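Fig. S4 source data, part A: sequence.
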Amino acid sequence: SFLDSDNEPKMTGYKYIKTENDYYIYENQNYIPYGFSYDYYMDYEFCNEYSDNSRAAMMLKAVLLTDEQIEKYGRLMTDIKELEYSGNTEDETSLLISDSAMELDCYKLAATSAVSFKRDNNGFTAVVERDKENLVFFSVPYDEGWSATVNGSPVEVEKVNAGFMAVLVPEGESTIRFTYITPGLENGIIITLLSAIILIFYAIIYRLVSRGKKAETSYPEGD
């Protein structure tokens, strides 16, 4: 059963909506849409101090960055270590891991999510609004085949949170475009075309040369 002994959902943040075709439908109240931004960051040393189960909760509080990324983007956010000794309140992020803290963390991230998000066969496009320059996070697995533009200009795709993607956007409204091309596909097409051209030229030259030569075949039995 999806319910506990008190007839409440076992997973925090889920609300019963209706029953349809013998299915019980619940809505995740803590859902975070694509394209949100963090106020805090953390490094790998700090993150590794938590258990595997707790790291997911910590990534709702702060984005996990490498030391190199912290040098580039740390100025845009606050180091989560500054919250280490702060208590939990109803409107402030803290290091406390609890159901109520998770609800607050999700609510704050969802408030910064993309104004619009559209997928297509080649990638996706998102429109975001920011009151300051910041990274925009997408819970899409990082891959070398992804490239991105912000307001039409190419930008670097950062691998954050141990395997997802983020891009830097300026203050104000920005249109983010992610495009995926299979790694090596373009080079493979070029190599294939060049090989086909070489093969065609070889066939043409071989035929021309063959026409200009007389057959020199001889048989032991004579003609």
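Fig. S4 source data, part B ends here. Residues 7 and 136 are 38 Å apart (CA to CA).
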